[in-house]
Amino acid sequence: MPRPLPPSDSLPYALYTAAQVRALDQAAIASGMPGGALMARAGAAAYQRLRARWPEARRITLLCGAGNNGGDGYVLARLARADGLDVTLLQLGDVSQLGADAQGMLEAWLGMGGRLEAFQELPRRSDVIVDALLGIGLERPVAGEWARAVEAVNAQRAPVLAIDIPTGLHADTGRVLGTAIRAAATLSFIGLKQGLFTGAGPACCGDVYFDGLGVPAVIYASEILAARRLDWAKVSDQVEPRRRDAHKGDFGHVLVVGGAPGFSGAARLAGEGALRAGAGLVSVATHPAHAAHLNTGRPELMVRGIADPRELSPLLERASAVAMGPGLGREPWGVGLIERVLAAGKPLVMDADALNWLAGARLRRDDWVLTPHPGEAARLLGCTAAEIQADRFSALRRLQDLYGGTIVLKGAGTLVLGPSQRPPGVCSQGNPGMASGGSGDVLTGMMAALLGRGLDPEQAAEAAVCLHAAAGDRAAAEGEQGLLATDLIAAIRPTLNAAVTRP
Predict the structure, then answer these.
(1) How does DSSP assign 378-438, residue by residue?
(2) Residue of 205, 230, 142 lying closest to 178 (CA atoms)
(3) For a designed S-S bond to 126, which of 158, 352, 419, 423 qualifies (C-beta 3.0 to 4.6 A apart)?
(4) Full DSSP string of 11-68
(5) What is the rounded average pLDDT for all residues in the chain?
(6) What is the per-residue pLDDT for 126?
(7) Is the dihedral of CA 391, 396, 401, 402 positive or negative?
């Protein structure tokens, strides 16, 4: 018998577009799996997830649309009622437009005495609300009674389980189409959609679960991945353990260039990030105004005040990799340092003000790593941050086409794309506590450390992004509110060593 992909709380790493998932669904049906059977499995899987996540729930409210998502909801409603739960099923859309499979599930619900009520308002009390309204085919903004239903769900306190995808979230881009349900959990079927993990996806989806519905693994060979989910467990093997006879020279010498007057903290955070990510040596080239005290409390940083860009030459000669930009500023002092670093041809991470300079220079290199947040990406592409966030995957590809090298588009669901033929990577770790000043500077230093340790730019970017996110999650164990970049730095070492052990 064909081997199915097992249902698991361990998410697959393969990510697909909505069109690809529809093609997989149709291929499964063509292989002999009836559409009604897939719908029944989806509804049953959703009900099992609901009971596992909220075992004390007794009052279930379902919002069903007039498509296959609604069909999944009818199955869930029937199973819940059979278990003695109090089920309220609210319908949006014309049920006369239901496909044959969904119509059959509706008739089964009605046949057991279930009721179908047109949506007017939500019940006063629900223990769980199930979103079975709109699926992955949504391409236009949610409006009218559909928008009113979404806003009603978001205004109440009961947790929401979204079936396949939260209503209003674009499956390919992770943008909100008008308005979107914010779920506590989302159960995705057959293939994980790439939009669940970036942009507004993480905020709308909550915890993501997956069920392959018994689709044979051979079916998936027909589709090339649209993207790859990345996490620290997946990429940690790129960082090799230290040998017994290792010395500091084996782990690279990182040069951090930055820290204009008033911004010395950014350079220090990058330097400390590099140290904690395993760099053997870290030098910081900074403005003479604060060079004397920048390493106070962190004497392992070798700090050099640079008044003239030519003074960088001996530091560049010794460097294995360069982190360029943290706190650099836009004055002539910083511009001169950028030009000197670029001429050296060293493995390079460009961040912050170095990217702002690059937006005007429009250079291209194959061996650097660029790490823009949405605002910096907008300047690099000559558009708005809103346009970047509307389609982060498209923005990522445009950046890589224009500037070359490896691009790291930061934000919720950080994206990574290098010059290889691999699909873009999407980091599925991290948390909102990391949205604080200095977190990006730490990442820049970590990335340079891994470059200096011998990883290629794409590998270094993926490993640093995931280690940074995993460390952020470890730091957030004490709460996301008030999490500082220095808290993140403290979490890098235990996170790294838990995964990278000496044989």
Answers:
(1) HHHHTS-HHHHHHTHHHHHHHHHHHH-SEEEE-STT-EEE-SSSSPPEEE----GGG-STT
(2) 142
(3) 158
(4) --SEEE-HHHHHHHHHHHHHTT--HHHHHHHHHHHHHHHHHHH-TT--EEEEEE-SSH
(5) 95
(6) 98
(7) positive
| pLDDT single digits (tens) 208-255 | 999 999 999 999 998 999 999 999 999 999 998 888 898 998 899 999
Number of Cβ within 10 Å of residue 200's Cβ equals 22
Q: Which of 344, 339, 345, 399 is nearest to 371 (CA)?
A: 399
Rounded to 5 degrees, φ, ψ at 321 are -155, 155
pTM for this entry: 0.95
Q: Which amino acid belongs to residue 449?
A: A
Query: Is residue 173 within 8 Å of residue 391, measured between CB atoms?
Result: yes
- The structure tokens listed for 476 are 């957030």
Q: Which superfamily, per CATH, for 14-225?
A: YjeF N-terminal domain (3.40.50.10260)
pLDDT band at 2 (very low <50, low <70, confident <90, very high): very low
Instruction: Give dist(CA 483, CA 436) in Å, integer.
Output: 8
Beta-strand relationship, 59-64 and 86-91? parallel
Beta strands 128-132 and 302-305, pairing class: unpaired
User: What's the pLDDT tens digit per position in 407-424?
Assistant: 999 999 999 999 998 999
Domain ranges of the chain: 14-225, 233-497
Residue 7: per-residue pLDDT: 43
Q: Are 168 and 63 in contact (CB under 8 A)?
A: no
Count of alpha carbons within 13 Å of 324, Cβ hemisphere only? 31
Average pLDDT over residues 260-283: 97
- Our CA angle for 441, 443, 448, nearest 5°, is 100
Q: How far apart are CA 390 and CA 175, in angstroms?
A: 5
CATH superfamily of 233-497: Ribokinase (3.40.1190.20)
